[in-house]
Fold this sequence. Notes:
Oligomer: single chain
Keywords: FAD, Flavoprotein, Oxidoreductase
Structural class: alpha+beta
Protein name: FAD binding domain-containing protein
Distance between the termini: 53 Å
InterPro entries: CO_DH_flav_C (IPR005107), CO_DH_flav_C_dom_sf (IPR036683), Diverse_Substr_Oxidored (IPR051312), FAD-bd_PCMH (IPR016166), FAD-bd_PCMH-like_sf (IPR036318), FAD-bd_PCMH_sub1 (IPR016167), FAD-bd_PCMH_sub2 (IPR016169), Mopterin_DH_FAD-bd (IPR002346)
Shape: globular
Helix content: 25-40%
Pfam families: CO_deh_flav_C, FAD_binding_5
Domain FAD-binding PCMH-type: 1-160
Amino acid sequence: MLTEVHVPEDVPAAVGLIASGATILGGGTSLMPALNDYGSPPTELVSLRRTGLSGITVTGSTATTGSTATIGATTTLSQIEHDPRLEILNSVVRSIASVPVRNLATVGGNLFVRQPYGDLAVALVALNARALPADGSGPAELPLERPALVTAVTFELPAPGVFKYVKAARRRWNSASLVTVAATIVELDGLVSGARVALGGVSDHIVRAAAVEEALLGRPLTDETVAAAARAGLGELSPADDAYASAWYRTRVFPVHLRRALLGR
């Protein structure tokens, strides 16, 4: 069966093709291997590379607290990696795949890739990012429940030290997550006054760890507090066995990686 690839010049044209049943093609790093694995791939794809959805803007002249970053959906992970205004995301994008993959993989595609992949999306959930849908329905909270054409993601850059991130994987390059922890932790007078924690690799979807957040709030960020938060969060995990790790192992090491993300040790 032949596959036809459409390359529209603008977003409305892409929206029309998608409405007619065509499948969105971003960087193709997830979709194309999947198509090659099955005998009946979609007959129509919509490439977004000419729709003008690539680019990064940050309000203000420097990436300071209170600035807002907006990243176009077809912006590649490599573009993020090499933009000094988004240094906060360096550890995230450099934990994903390898340089050749990051040269192709896009922000929009990362929002919809299946777990245990999609580490950038985990970080964006922790950063309280919003997706901007092409249908004009207004900013939508991540993670999105179903695939859609997204034009950009936007989020407020946190103060230095607020964003935390750790990804545990079997190897450095091209490895899916065993456990990914991304968090924004705000402290006031020695106590946690704000917490937003997202997890990857521990379910078939990104987990917003509400029980972990609740266990942290109002308490000092210590080994004891984080250990209690990890115990509270165990009920939010629903990991699966795969080629990278067993469900038992992911559950067993989750507290370790939560501690490493939040305390740096």
